[in-house]
Amino acid sequence: MEYRRLGNAGIKVSEISLGAWLTYGESVDFETTKKCIYVAIENGVNFFDLADVYAMGEAERVVGKILKEFRRQDLVISSKVYWPMSDNVNDRGLSRKHIMESIDGSLKRLGVDYLDIYFCHRFDPETPVEEVVRAMDDLVHQGKILYWGTSVWSAAQIERAVGICEKLNCYKPQVEQPRYNMLDRHIEQEIMPTCARYGIGITVFSPLAQGILTGKYNEGMPKGTRAEWSEWIKRDLTEENINKVRKLTNIARDLNLTMSQLALSWILRRPEISSVITGASKPEQVLENVRASGVKLGEDVLNEIEGILSGEA
Question: For residues 285 and 37, is the Cβ–Cβ distance under 8 A?
């Protein structure tokens, strides 16, 4: 496993990390979750990404119970705040009240004294950015979080937060967590340059387009897959995209890589990326994913991939 700095911060995270969205505490049983986490740590993963809303708190409880078996200082644990956690009108968003109450809930469920990273899970148009910045800065001073970040914020929103932090001499956001993969490259235009300008790291989710970039849909839709109900997958599951993945699978095979490993190493070609957050419902998937760390794709291969993704090949 290779490690990268979180932007210009001193902390280092594993190139491949493990997230709990739609898996742990929900569709994956406890023993399998434990095996996945053990395999991840045994193979150098140090970054585990969660959110209070994942399985409505159950993901934090389950993963926290397992991570207690390891030294806290060996781990980088993140969680997020924003989405509603109940019907209460204030149990949502990025108000100071919700942030302060949510961090205590996440720490209790995880069984830890602090989070390494705390993400604002979306931009909140109903809360002044200054209120968000001051709340996050206070959490750092209180020792409840070490760094804070944003998730699915626009470049303009990130710039606004940074500007307010500079004005108020508050801790700046250190990381952005967007969606990014071979089929969704929207962050390359504005978000990547903005993060690079301010020394903000990027930890991306959905690197395999929820399974499309594993190649498992190359010959049709297998029974029991997420594509049967996920609107997000159905949006990307077009014949054009499947044809691209078929061509990419041939490149992976020539490089003795799986399609997943090619997709992950392609993301890591960018120095702006700090870590790729992967999901796994089986320990074998964890092992396959971590082997993408350190894979360097040559210029010829990258040009060939670019031709396929742009539709020119």
Answer: no
Domains of the chain with bracketed CATH:
3-207+260-294 (3.20.20.100)
Tokens encoding 117: 């990273």
What is the C-alpha separation between 270 and 265, in angstroms, rounded? 9
Number of CB atoms found within 10 A of residue 9's CB = 17
Pairing of strands 273-278, 201-204: parallel
Between the CA of residue 304 and those of 12, 252, 269, 310, what are the distances in Å? 31, 12, 14, 10
Tens digit of each residue's pLDDT (9 = 90 or more) over 266-307: 999 999 999 999 999 999 999 999 999 999 999 999 999 999
Token readout for 216 is 């498992």
Residue 267 is predicted with a pLDDT of: 98
Q: In the prediction, which pLDDT does 132 show?
A: 98
Q: Exactly one of 24, 54, 82, 118 is catalytic; which is it?
A: 54
The encoded tokens of residue 160 equal 């606004």
Q: Find where tokens 């399609």 sit.
A: 259
Residues of the chain whose pLDDT is less than 50?
Answer: none
Quote the CA–CA distance of 272 and 289 in Å, as a whole number.
Answer: 20
Q: Is the pTM of this model over 0.70?
A: yes
Q: Assess whether 54 carries a catalytic annotation.
A: yes
